[in-house]
Amino acid sequence: MAQSEPSAVDPGSREGPDSDSDSEQFRQFVSTRSSALLRTAYLLTGDYARAEDLLQSALIRAHRHWRRVRKQGEPEAYVRKIIVNLNTDWWRRRSSFEQVVDTAGDQAPSDPAPDAFAAYELRDELWEALRGLPPKMRAALVLRYFEDLTEAQAAHVLGCSVGTVKSQCSRGLERLRAAYGLAPPPVPDTSQPEHRDSPRISTRRSA
Amino acid sequence: MSTDIEEALRAELAARAETARLRPDFQDALERGIGRDKVRRRVAGGSALALFVAAAVAAAVILNGGASTPAPAHPPTDLSRFSLLQIPTRGSLAHDAAFVADAMRTGRAALDKTVADYEFGPLDPSSFRLLYAGDDGVLRFVVVAGIFNDPHATPDQPSSATSIYDVLIGQSGARAADLHPQAFPGTSQGESAFAVTGESAGPGKPTPLIVLGPTQMTDIQYSPGVTLDKTLHTHRTGVPLKTVDGAAIGEIPGTSSVFAAYGYSMGTAFKATVNGHTTYDFESAASMPAWVNDAISRDPAIVAAHQNLRNLLVQKASGAGLRLGPDDALILSVQMALEDLAIAEHSSITDVQYTVAWIGREDTGLGAVVLDVTVPGLPALQLFADAAAGGANMGDTTQGTLIRLEPSHDAGHVPTTRAQFTGGVSFGQDEGRLAGFTW
Fold first, then answer.
1. Residues in chain B closer than 8 A to A89 (CB atoms)
2. DSSP alpha helix (H) spans, B18-132
């Protein structure tokens, strides 16, 4: 497209794969990294189908800009950022159009033995609490505690300040802690020797 | 210091993540999605070119003092004196100070996010404009725009766009904060006129649309797609929109046909009059409703129809010595041609019947196929498609699909090249937006 022509919608069309080499590299990226990216998408959405939709949309966008994305050297980070942003957008759209009447989502394909029910029930509470968090807060937790990104890296992905990541994680953990039945973390008291008991996972919140 | 909740969260996230598995056909679905995306952007790009010409013609007319002078053969290169960004806010809410203030805040945030998501580079703050704020009693529309600096532009690869706009739509009476941006923001090199087809909320629900042009623009109409008559002539029928100050908002009525809805995001075109001249197709952006995408990619009948087509073409090609891959452009080209035919008749690809009359490779190296096709509502027809196929290292090369009334196989001779397909006419939903197509 000549410079003087307008480009509707996609300014990056000139940056998509335009050679067999580019296309092959894109295919290879999809082949090797899709599973990992899907896991992130699933943790953000709590829904297998929605996660795959997110991943597909993100990869299509990455494909449009593939040459540039590849040149920048971090295609996985780029796609992950799109996934996070698209998920937030989706929530925003859904909140405009739909009333959420069922947040049950997908169940993990596991079949626990009876003596493991208690542990699984506990885990389900944590998972449901996580799914109930606002999307950006959940994303902050997933990026920090699953992707193991630093606060600065998470801030970059989320497009916010490091302080916002800190506060989102702190509030998110607070909510999870309440759902999980844990007492708030003790405030460090530097005037006393540290010998108090740590809160235990087994101290569930009573119904 | 790591707390127990942090450790529990790490363990839970790791365990849950392990349960996520890609569907076996994910790669295929992705390739199809990329194929659709390419075509969609190609269509949008072509439309934007028409838009550019239309806007340039409009600009020339305006600059001539509104006289009904003939349109110039070539558009002027300087559009700086015609710009949507220089027109005061339009729409029924343009003088509602409180709403305008909210719309400015919401719109600015949306535009900043779009710019960030698409990596356009920061907006020039002084360029930000509220172009439209209106409510027709059914829906509420806000349009914002601004100019950005493309940080990736280089002398070798200059930016292909300098301005960007976002369209936010919601229910009538909604607060600005409750309007939602359409998934498909637009960009342009000049700040010219545009139309946006928004997202339908679901089957049977209407699709919103908005058109913004120069204030002299009148009689704005839309056509939701190209249709075919019994002689396979393509045409469009315009539906008028109430036009005020060169702007119009409205809705395309809902349809239960997923393919018709799909067509709205692919084939809707617009026309209008500017100082006595009719300008065709300044459509520039359309949003693919998520439910349409879901239906097309997940509906078992549609998925099976696509799979059957692929299997048949691969099998027939193999018999003819052509090794077709599932990602070859030829397969996608045929699939989309059949979908476009179905859209024209408000039908579905699941209702289209076809047989392969011939398949092989042309002298050009492209794969080619001739199909005998039956679409409910249309006479029997024949379709010719040629595109990259069989590892010919021709990328995504594809040519326009031809159709014709089915002859008696040319006295036993099936055409095997584009030239031999006599009497064929180009057909595709995007055909109806090419220059010269009047309706």
1. 181, 183
2. 26-63, 97-117
